[in-house]
Amino acid sequence: MNKIDIVNIKKELAKRKAANYKWSENGDMSKDDIMLRTTKELENLIKDFDNNKKIIAEQEVKKLVNEIFTEFSDNPDDNMIVLGACNYYHDSRHVYESDDPLNSIYFDGFEHQYNKLAYPIGCNWEIPSWDNKKAKDKDKYEKLQEYIKKIIPYLKDLGLESIYDYWDKNNDALNECWYGVHGITKDYQIVAFVIRDDGMLCEEESFDTFYNSILYKIK
User: Fold this and answer.
1) Rounded to an integer, what distance in angstroms lies between the CA atom of residue 8 and that of residue 71?
2) Do the beta carbons of residue 101 and residue 82 sit within 8 Å?
3) Strand-pair partners of 179
4) How far apart are CA 131 and CA 96, in angstroms?
5) Is 116 exposed, middle or buried (0-12, 13-18, 19+ CB in 10 A)?
6) Under a CB-based contact definition with an 8 Å cutoff, are residues 98 and 84 in contact?
7) Separation of alpha carbons 69 and 3, rounded Å
8) pLDDT digits (tens, 9 = 90+) for 152-200
């Protein structure tokens, strides 16, 4: 069974509640395979597929996290990977996604005094910026971004909304200086937290208090 079969099953279920639909080709299951099953059987097929998709996503994310830490972590304080960040301007109706959280946020500010939780890989690198396009860590930084792009699509398979949608709904603590950040820790926890651009956490007790949240734990 593949994704096309899931599309067809959902159409069959919808048909049983409403009108006819156009059959999609190239699935593993024939039309009879789907039409001759009960509604409960079809619903269970979708549930099993979603569970399997989540298991595959967990395995792939763990693999990518391990590869990233093995290849890029060069600081003993590294404990997470930044997946994305958003902030919220006072004259805007929606949040803005940061093109480059590691340039926008100084995670190592105040010598750890106000941030004892979040030290992403690359936060101490010399990375490209508008006034320093030939930074010494440019190549490995860009390679790290390619790895991160591979992780992002799996968030949906894990049942999580996009980084943008999450912070657009949870923007109470955000403004021009305070960012909402998504990251994944070395032990595979997908977390959301609020931090100021100079490195002060809004809540420094844990990733599971106040504006910080543990969104998903991969075992």
Assistant:
1) 42
2) yes
3) 195
4) 22
5) exposed
6) yes
7) 32
8) 999 999 999 999 999 999 999 999 999 999 999 999 999 999 999 999 9
Give SS3 for 132: strand
Neighbours of 124 (CB within 10 A): 16
CA triple 34-26-47, angle to 5 deg: 45
Retrieve residue 43's tokens: 């619903």
Predicted TM-score of the model (pTM):
0.82
Give the total residue count for the chain.
219
The one-letter amino acid code at 80 reads: M
Contacts of 58 (CB under 8 A, 6+ apart): 158, 218, 219
- Name the DSSP class of 24: P
Q: Report whether 207 contacts 214 (CB < 8 A).
A: yes
Q: Classify residue 57 as left (phi > 0), alpha (psi -120 to 50) or beta.
A: alpha
User: What tens digit of pLDDT does each residue of 22-79 get?
Assistant: 778 888 888 888 888 998 999 999 888 888 999 999 999 999 999 999 999 999 999 9
* Cα–Cα separations (whole angstroms), residue 219 to 60, 73, 80, 159: 13, 21, 16, 16
Degrees to nearest 5, angle at CA 6 with 2 and 9: 135
